[in-house]
Amino acid sequence: MTESRWIAPEPARPASAGREPLTSDQVASWRERGFAVVDDVFPVGAVEDARRDALEPFSGAPPSGHTDFGSRGRLEFPAESDAVNALTLHPRLLGAVAQLLAVPIEQIRLTQSDLWPKWGREAPTDHPLDNRDQRIHVDYPNHTLLHPPRWDAPEAVELIVYLSDVDECGGPTAVVSREGRDDPAYSWPIVRTPGVGALRWVNDREKAEAYLRDEAPEVAAWRAEHLYPRERYVRYRVGTVLLYRHDTWHRGTPIEPGALRLVQNMTFRTAPSEWISVLHTGWAWSMYRRSQVMERLVATASVEQRCVLGFPPPGHAVWTEEMLEAVEARYGPLGFDVGPYRDASAARSAASETGPSRSTRSGGPGSTSVDGVPWRGPSSR
Fold first, then answer.
1. Cα angle 194-198-204, degrees, rounded to a multiple of 5
2. What are phi and psi of 255, to 5 degrees?
3. Which residues lie closer than 8 Å to 276 by C-beta, 6 or more apart?
4. Where on the phi/psi map is residue 180: left (φ > 0), alpha (ψ -120 to 50), or beta?
5. Are the beta carbons of 243 and 36 closer than 8 angstroms?
6. What confidence tens digit (pLDDT) does each residue in 309-366 have?
7. Domain coordinates of the chain in residue numbers?
8. CA separation for the pair 305, 254 (Å, rounded)
9. Does 67 or 136 have the greater pLDDT score?
């Protein structure tokens, strides 16, 4: 592929820049073109720790019949690796997602985090769902019960954190940039893909396009004209993050034979978008584990990180005195600080006793209204 087809990552803003790690150009690229490719979202050490833990279960030969979809539960969130979990809830990553969706961090929700290994093979299998060389697609069909909203009102961020280097293993992600409102590749609704409507889901590129030529020749011709010729490829390295959307055309390309590529796939939605599903079994279900990884994570997370998991924020009506005592009894032995929740509930009670004031109606600059009660959030937890 020619050099002009490659997309090089651009550096994020430094940690000293505060809670918004993305530059204005990176935000604009995601909102207008459908993706942004960014380096330095995470500290180098955090990425290396996650890579080390990911290599342990996947460094050998691929499991028999493995088609490269997910970790088969081994490194789904909450993983038994603290380092992998730390990437999922890293404050700079959450800040980037909040920037893209133009909402406070406490108004985003995690719906997917899984570390995916992909092994290079000489040729695809005969299975139509083979993942070696994907057909070009959008991701919304297996994430949402609906269809993505119009382009200017996004409700989710998808992302890939690369824990490998393209120069060592190949397999760059291909994306199609949206070029303005009248781009034919992004005409709405986005349905010209296997797995939508009456079209059967076929993943392998060759088999998918052959199927479409037989069943929907006009769709096959449209894809051949507007999608594949416009592919550009992510020149990723360890720590690069591809931020994209449910309605971004993209696909995985073949890994070099014998190589292993590791990535962490994540999705975050806005809090009201309940039609976007959690792709895993659910965070509370993991509390059956003897390791208590989820209980400890909830106990030690920041207030914002807990909100991202669906934990009610300070000031929510659920925080009665009885609930505060019960949750403190459940998580207190593991380090949970009930203080921010108790303080916000006391403020809520005081506000209800004195009646609404100008400050409680508006919340003031920089505050967040939770059930009508302004909340600026604690400084540390």
1. 20
2. -80, 150
3. 111, 143, 144, 145, 155, 156, 267, 269
4. left
5. yes
6. 999 999 999 999 999 999 999 999 999 999 999 999 999 988 888 765 544 444 443 4
7. 3-280, 303-375
8. 35
9. 136
d(CA 129, CA 350): 58
> What are 114's two structure tokens?
């899984």
Tens of pLDDT, residues 201-211 = 999 999 999 99
Q: How far apart are CA 49 and CA 81, in angstroms?
A: 9
CATH architecture of 3-280: Sandwich (2.60)
Question: Are residues 173 and 160 in contact, defined by beta-carbon separation less than 8 angstroms?
Answer: yes
Among residues 235, 141, 231, which one has the least CA distance to residue 185? 231
pTM of the shown model: 0.91
**Residue with the two structure tokens 């809520």:** 348
CA-based nearest residue to 22, from 95, 103, 110, 104: 95
- The number of angstroms, rounded, from the C-alpha of 141 to the middle of its chain's C-alpha atoms is 15
3-state SS string over the chain? CCHHHEECCEECCCHHHCCCCCCHHHHHHHHHHCEEEEECCCCHHHHHHHHHHHHHHHCCCCCCCCCCCCCCCCCECCCCCHHHHHHHCCHHHHHHHHHHHCCCHHHEEEEEEEEEEEECCCCCCCCCCCCCCECCECCHHHCECCCCCCCCCCCEEEEEEECCCHHHHECCCEECCCCCCCCHHHCCCCCCCCCCCCCCCCCEHHHHHHHHHHHCHHHHHHHHHHCHHHCEEECCCCCCEEEECCCCCEECCCECCCCEEEEEEEEEEECCCCCECCCCCCCHHHHHCCCCHHHHHHHHCCHHHHHHCCCCCCCCCCCCHHHHHHHHHHHHHHCCCCHHHHHHHHHHHHHHHHCCCHHHHHCCCCCEEECCEEECCCCCC
Scan for tokens 């719906």, then name that residue.
Answer: 111
Q: When comparing pLDDT for 155 and 362, which is higher?
A: 155
